[in-house]
Every structure is written in structure tokens, then in C-alpha cells.
UniProtKB/TrEMBL annotation:
Organism superkingdom: Bacteria
GO biological process entries: porphyrin-containing compound biosynthetic process
Pfam families to which the protein is assigned, alphabetical: URO-D
Lineage: Bacteria, Bacillati, Bacillota, Clostridia, Eubacteriales
GO molecular function terms listed in the Swiss-Prot or TrEMBL record: uroporphyrinogen decarboxylase activity
Name of protein: Uroporphyrinogen decarboxylase
Protein species of origin: Alkalibacter rhizosphaerae
Boundaries of every Uroporphyrinogen decarboxylase (URO-D) domain copy: 99-289
Gene3D superfamilies hit by this protein: 3.20.20.210
Signal peptide, first to last residue: none
């Protein structure tokens, strides 16, 4: 029987895996690493991060999102971004890094990838600061200022990466950035190529040039029209790939160039009334359609968790069952 890491390598290289990769099993994420995560700690709370972005998590919702009313919006005029937007320091004490270093040192790297976690993404940062509407409009109305702002976010990411790599030698990077709705990308491919591709070529190129073997990018949306750019920027695995992307078609088209991780939509199975039977139905369809190579069955959720208790674990169990049935 192959190890978790060996089996993953067989899948992404078009080799001979002996089972399905089970969601996030190959990534040991070092979540103790100090960072300015923009997440409210619990439902019903509101927090402001070090960029000045205020996140609100309504008690009846499954996640938080930035507040963009006049009182809370950080950047109201992109032409004045240099006056307003101030990146937090990436310098943390040895004590703050200690738990992350201990975790990484205790990982069997023959079995799993020690994985750095980074969120939000570069595009997300622009609309977190400005609002989605303002950010999209600014790309048309003030493209040079938006390029400056994106460059500023990139410099912050590179500075953080430098600190991370100095303290921990990760084997993989798991990076968030949502680029679309369920049915369309937010940007046209031409605009994405102009604004977003150069940024990620710098960021992912830096991580890879410093020993990171695997880039896993989370984007739980439609982004089939952006896959050529994903490949160009160095993404090895697209996590969160929803069924609206037609994953089997993408595997045929880009075979050997990128692996697709998803095809089990969280919005369909991760619900208050979830059942194992429904998870099995969707997961089996996903695996039958996508096959055994360049595909990892996974919820579209952007971490190894679920919104409702038990769903992630039940999905793991279903994938184990499907491996016995289909291999």
C-alpha cells in the first residue's frame, strides 16, 4: 500500500495510485504560524484586522465577510490608496513562531507535506479593502492605481513568505483566492491576465524557488476559463473546483498539467439536514466522471472542515468506501 504522499504523487503525475486521495489528507497545515487571519473567531462576532478591515459574522450565517458601509470601508478612493492602506508588519517574535516550528518538526515528511497556509488572496484583498463593486469598477476606471495596489499586496505577501521560509521549511503552500461566482469568473480572462497573473507569478515563483514543491490554490467558484493562467503561475492543484466547471472536461483538456481537487459541491451536501447517502451519491458521481488521475475528490470547502458537524468526516468515510469499490 502506498503512503499518503506516494499515492498523491501517483495521482498528480498520471501514475498508478492504489486509491483515491482523501480530500486534504496529504497536507499537514501549520495553522499555528503567526499571521493576520481575517476571520471572526465565532458566529455572532465582529473583528477588525491589522489592515483595518472589519469582518462581521452574523449569527445565522456560515461565515464572515468584510463590512463595506461608509463607516467601515477602509479604501473609499483608490487614487488615495497610498495615504490609506498600511500593511501590517510581518515580523513576529521567536515565541510567536514556536508552536508552528514544533508542529512542523513533528510531521513525518515522508507521509505528508508540511503546508503553509495563506489567506486572503491578492484579488480578495483588493475587494476586502474597497468592496467588490468598487474594486471591479476601479479595474476599469483607475487601472494604474489598481496595479499599484496589487503590487503593494504582492510585496506584503513576499515579505511574509520570506519570514515563513526562514522559520519553517514547508513542502507545500495552500493559498486562497476566490475568482468567481458559481457560473462565471469575476474578471474576463484578458483582464485576469493583465492584473492578476503577473502578481501570482511573482508570489508562487518565490515560494517554489525557495524549496516549496507543491502549490495548492483554493478557488471555490467557476474558473474553468482561467485554468491556462493557473498553470502558467505555477499552481499544481486547484482545490475547490466546483461541478459547474465540468471537471471531467478540464481533466481531458489539461491532462498532466494540473490536478483538480473538488467536484463535490459543499453547497449541495454540507447542509443542516445532510445525510451520508447524499454525500455518497454526489461523491460517487464525481469519481465516476472524473476518474482516478489528476483528480482528488473533495468538498469545495476551503479547509479540511465543514460548515455543519460531521460532514467532512462522513465525506472521508465515503471516499474510503469508493476506493474499495472502484480500485
Amino acid at each position: 500500500m502506498l503512503t499518503i504522499k506516494q499515492n498523491l504523487k501517483e495521482v498528480i503525475s498520471g501514475g498508478n495510485p492504489d486509491r483515491f486521495v482523501k480530500q486534504y489528507e496529504f497536507m499537514e497545515m501549520i495553522m499555528e504560524a503567526p499571521m493576520d487571519l481575517p476571520l471572526a473567531p465565532a458566529p455572532g462576532t465582529r473583528v477588525k484586522n491589522k489592515w483595518g478591515i472589519t469582518f462581521d459574522w452574523p449569527i445565522d450565517q456560515i461565515g464572515s465577510f468584510p463590512m463595506h458601509d461608509d463607516e467601515h470601508k477602509v479604501l473609499k478612493d483608490v487614487t488615495r490608496w497610498r495615504e490609506v492602506v498600511k500593511a501590517p508588519s510581518v515580523k513576529y517574535s521567536d515565541e510567536e513562531w514556536a508552536a508552528a516550528i514544533e508542529h512542523a518538526n513533528n510531521v513525518d515528511r515522508n507521509e505528508k507535506y508540511v503546508t503553509a497556509f495563506c489567506a486572503p488572496g491578492i484579488f480578495e484583498m483588493t475587494h476586502h479593502l474597497m468592496s467588490m463593486e468598487d474594486a471591479l469598477m476601479a479595474l476599469y476606471e483607475e487601472p494604474e492605481y489598481m496595479k499599484e495596489l496589487i503590487d503593494y499586496v504582492v510585496e506584503y505577501e513576499l515579505a511574509y513568505a520570506q519570514e515563513y521560509l526562514k522559520h519553517i521549511k514547508p513542502d507545500a503552500l495552500f493559498h486562497h483566492d476566490d475568482w468567481g461566482s458559481q457560473i462565471s469568473s469575476f474578471l474576463s480572462p484578458e483582464m485576469f491576465e493583465e492584473f492578476i497573473l503577473p502578481a501570482y507569478k511573482k508570489v508562487y515563483g518565490y515560494w517554489k524557488s525557495n524549496g516549496v514543491e507543491l502549490i495548492v490554490h483554493h478557488c471555490d467558484s467557476y474558473a474553468a476559463n482561467l485554468v491556462p493562467f493557473m498553470i502558467e503561475m505555477g499552481i499544481d492543484i486547484w482545490q475547490g473546483a466546483m461541478t459547474t466547471n465540468n471537471i471531467p472536461e478540464l481533466i481531458k483538456k489539461y491532462e498532466g498539467k494540473i490536478t483538480f481537487m473538488g467536484n463535490i459541491d459543499s453547497g449541495r451536501v454540507d447542509t443542516p439536514d445532510w445525510t451520508r447517502e447524499k454525500i455518497y451519491e454526489d461523491a460517487r458521481k464525481a469519481c465516476e466522471e472524473a476518474g482516478k488521475l489528476y483528480f482528488i475528490p473533495c468538498l469545495s470547502q476551503g479547509l479540511n472542515i465543514s460548515s455543519f458537524p460531521g460532514v467532512y468526516e462522513a465525506t472521508d468515510d465515503v471516499i474510503d468506501q469508493l476506493s474499495k469499490e472502484m480500485f
